[in-house]
Each structure stands twice: as structure tokens, then as C-alpha cells.
Design brief:
Layout: E1 2-5, E2 13-16, H1 20-43, H2 53-106, H3 111-118, H4 122-141
Antiparallel strand pairs: 1-2
Amino acid sequence: MTQTASEPLGPQLTVSVPGVDAVQDAVEPAQAFAAAAGLAGPLAAGPLAPELEPHLALAAAGVEEAIEEEDVLAEVWRTSSRLESMQWELDTAQESLRQAVRKASAAGVADGELCAAANLTPEELSTVLMAAAVVSPVALEL
């Protein structure tokens, strides 16, 4: 089914919607695929030549071990990569917090309020503010 919509001052728009025949055409290949998949079970039930069975079992075991080792190693790589990403995000967030604390302190916010808002102890707050004081003179000399 095709419909056309137009506006006197604008462009013309034509929309086509598949009819029942198109849907039926899509169903037939899906049914053929399901029938082919049904054949895979009997063919995969066992070796075609019984004398190959012991050799196939050994080969399959070797492949399974190799795949298992690769899977385990891949999991280590993924986990390590995720940890590194999280550490980078944490470092970035901590630096953003330090900058926000310094900005708030420069604006005159009381130390007690800063400690509560930033979840810092007075010693940690002092360290953050002192680090800014150490960096500032160098920036002024340039």
C-alpha cells in the first residue's frame, strides 16, 4: 500500500507499507531455515565413521581446552581494561572535586561546609587547599 501526502507550499511525501504478500514472502524463508536447522540435530549426533570417534574426541578436548584458556585470558584482559577505565574515571572525578573545593574556598565558603559537602576531613581539606597554594606561586612567576 502506498500513500502520498503533499502540502501546497512544501515537498511531496510518499510512504509505502508492505502488504500481506510481503509478509508472507518473509515467512517462507524463515520456515525453510527452521526445517534446515531441524536436520542439523541428526547430522551432529555422531561421527560418520565410527573408527574416527576416539580421534575426534581427543581433537575436541584439545580445542575445548584452548578455547577455555582463551576465554579465561580474554576475561582477564576485559577485567583489567575495565579496571583501568574506572581508575581513570576516579582520578578525573577526584581532580574535579579538588578544583571545585578550591574554587568554593576562594569564593569564601567556610571550611566546615566544604568538609561536609566534599566528604573530606579537615586534614584532607587542608591538603587540597595547600596543594593549590604550592601550584599558584609557580603560575604567578610565569
